[in-house]
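Running co-folding for adenosine-5'-diphosphate.
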Amino acid sequence: MNQTAQILFPVNVPTAFDYAVPAGLSVSRGDFVYAPIGKQMKLGVIWSVGAAQTDKKLKEIVDVKATRPLSPDMLDFVDWTARYNGASPGNVLRMVIRNYKALDPSAIVTLYKPSGETPKNLTPSRAAVLREGGPWPARASEAAARAGVSSGVVKGLVKAGGLIAKEGPVDPPFDRPDPDHPGRDLTAGQDEAAQDLVAQVQAGAFNVSLLDGVTGSGKTEVYFEAVAEALRRGQQCLILVPEIALTQAGLRRFKERFGAEPASWHSQMGEAARRRVWREVAQGRCKLVVGARSALYLPFPNLGLIVVDEEHDTSYKQEEGVIYNARDMSVVRGHLSGHSVILASATPSLESLHNARTGKFAHIILPERPGAAVLPDIALVDLKDNIPEKGKFLSQPLLDAVAEVTSRGEQALLYLNRRGYAPLIICRNCGEKLKSPDTDSWLVQHKRTGRAMCHLTGFSMRMPRECPNCKAEDSLTSVGPGVERIAEEAQEAFPDARVEILSSDTAGNPAELAERMRRMEQGEIDILVGTQMVVKGHNFPRLTFVGVVDGDLGLAGGDPRAGERTYQTLVQVAGRAGRADKPGHALIQTHQPEHEALQALAAGDREMFISVELAMREMLGLPPFGKLAAVIFWGPDPKKVDALAKKFLSAAPRADGIDILGPSEAPIGRLRGLYRRRLFIQAESGVNLSKYMSIWRQKVRPPTKYKIQIDIDPQSFM
Ligand code: ADP
């Protein structure tokens, strides 16, 4: 009998399909192959080889692509991700294979680089090419574009002796990181932690370490040693960071430590850069990748270490398409591939802390900052006793603290995680609140751009002069503060200070962000008003005061992790102060000074917070003591969405240890014109919730235009 093979295609299919292997063709698991699907010829991956379960005549595989196959652990990882998260394996494979061109070797083209000689007849355009055409080697068109001249000038420089031309790959390999390039001298505490991590890598088997160190304690320097060890063993390393922490300054630290720029991977990169990283990783040549969450699905054939930096960060959860948590999936990847995983944070998630305490993860602690730097002192400002002036949001203690540090030539940060000028626009005449046209969310006023914006969908319009409801003119008024309004207030209070805003509106692209960071680092800003963009990993040596405008902001809403998130964010924000030799302090304005998260912050007592929070979770059976899943129903007609949710509920399989809550309207009841209803499923820790949900999901088929979305371990409660 002929051999058969099962092929998975990177499209929305629930399973691999059977094909016949024609005589003379030999295939193995992980091979890329061409095979017909419908009327098309498609590239898929051999998922298994063996006898078919059918008597039907099978279609034949046409050809095997000459490229390195996916490794067996990668295939297992795709299956695991799909099974755990209730996604189709084809869709997960699509996250792995993004661009077929990356399977072929790089095209060979003519590349140019300076010869080192001064060319004959150095015209201004030629000089511009030599000055601005790099990085070299470059294609004529690239160098010309960077220098703002025509390609002819670049080619002309070869004859004139200024450039040399050579054939080479368009996508060159990355420089090799050198593990023995000298790094910083570690403190005794750091060195001990580093040795522990190195030993974990040397064990050459699956293990997870929680690197738990206060802000600024040198976690990056410490995990660099584990990276170096994996590199010495010839293995590949992946460092995951939250997308907004993936900055030039961050990459520069890798270059300083390893003598070579790492490959970086994020959602905004172009096709060519993506193809280059993918190919080099897949071939095993690229040894060091620093990337946002989706880098976890790059096809590393020889992974030796994954570091998840800021492991508590919510951006590790992908909320669209295949819903997965890259932090948790990193641990799965480590398990399947048999290597070390390091989770690093100053404010670890309760899940990871629980795993460390119960011995599942090694717990490696860095209790202090190196050198003279000390942790900032945190105090609460009770807004009931310290009422800001009418129409203002900064209380006297905050203003006093800003005055004090700026008079010493130091810097202050005012933190408010709200973009724009005001979160609500209301008509004084009729009470109408400006709402997004197709979504249940208020429009946010942006004064800088003169627009009203929906932050959920990106909808925006010019700020109207009259109320859209009662048509009264100039009756619209702003309610509450955003960063623009706080900056305005700070500028009024400190007319001579240089006040700037840092949010995704003012620093939307990496270049703008880097420029603002540079100005802050060099003391060209006195008061920085920022959203969560300021929280991530930046070091400002002159920043000595952090004022939190609204410490209660994260506490509202139905998120069971609200207290935890507030605690984490505020520790991280306060941790921006006092990074160098100057001590820092932080003040948090709040209406709920008695809240345990805020009390623990003020007392500097993390243990108190963790034990109260864990005890509460245990009592309520919430993660990490129980499991949670959400089901969201979407559709254009609210009655039919209700009906779909009810039908789904009535199809729930019987099982012990399962509690179902809902259905109810989701907090965002309408998004982009679609209505949303929600169910929560709470399960005891012994239940296989993924399996239960998958059996349930198969019982109900939504009508077209309607969707049932399953979210295992939800992080967002919108
Ligand atoms: P974390 O990741 O814990 O917040 P970092 O690794 O970013 O800490 O270190 C914080 C700052 O302290 C960085 O500027 C880093 O270069 C510096 N630093 C850390 N360890 C040392 C050391 N042993 N010697 C000198 N500088 C250090």
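Result summary
Residues 432-477 form one domain.
The chain has six domains: 3-97, 108-169, 188-366, 377-418+481-614, 432-477, 626-712.
Job closed.
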